[in-house]
Structure formats: C-alpha cells, structure tokens
Amino acid sequence: MRSDKNYAVAVILSMIFGVFGIQHFYLGRWFLGLFDLGLSICAIYQFAIGKPGLAALFAATDFIHTTIVTIELFTGKFKDGEGRIVCYPGQKLEGLEDE
C-alpha cells in the first residue's frame, strides 16, 4: 500500500534533521524517532562532559542509521508507521493495479 505521507517532505526532513529523528516522527515511526533523538542527545551530553570518543561513537551510529533511512527513502523502500511504502513520484508498486 502507498503511504499518504509526502515523499519530498520525508526526504528533506531526513536529509536536514535526520540525526534528530524528525522524519520518523513525521512518518509515524515513533520508536525510531526516539532512538535517533536519544542517540543525538547522548552524543551531545558525552561531548559536554568531556568524553569525545564516546560522543563520536553515538554520533557515528546516529549518522549511519540516518544514512540508511535516507537511502531507503530515495529508493522507495521505506515504510511509514502504518506499514505503507513512502513512494517516490511515479513509483509503481508490484501487485497494485489501481495505483
């Protein structure tokens, strides 16, 4: 099934605010949004208390996760919180003749 969420909005949110999980909140994937937000907060906190190595680990994990999500959005494979695919413009879904 095709998501009713806007593809362009999801991609832009992922590219600009992805490390904070904003795209996940927009798409209704609250757990992943909280996961990304938590990684960002942990990275900032670890840096603030003088542990740059641990901060870099949290930040790198968050960056890798955001990159994977953005690639899945670009390729039309990412699903919203209701399990529907966030389709790029013109994407055809197999098995759905009416869309």
Describe the structure.
The protein is an all-alpha fold and 99 residues long. The protein has a domain of 68 residues. Helix 1 runs antiparallel to helix 4. It is elongated and about 55 Å long. The N and C termini lie close together (9 Å). The model has no long low-confidence stretch (mean pLDDT 93).
Instruction: Calculate the terminal CA-CA distance, rounded to whole Å.
Output: 9 Å
**Count the helices. How many?**
4
| Major sheet size, sense and barrel closure | none
What's the total count of β strands?
0
Blueprint of the fold:
Elements lengths: L6 H11 L4 H6 L2 H19 L3 H23 L25
Keyword list:
mainly alpha; 99 residues
Give me a quick take on this structure.
By secondary structure, the protein is mostly helical. The protein has 4 helices and no strands. The mean pLDDT is about 95.
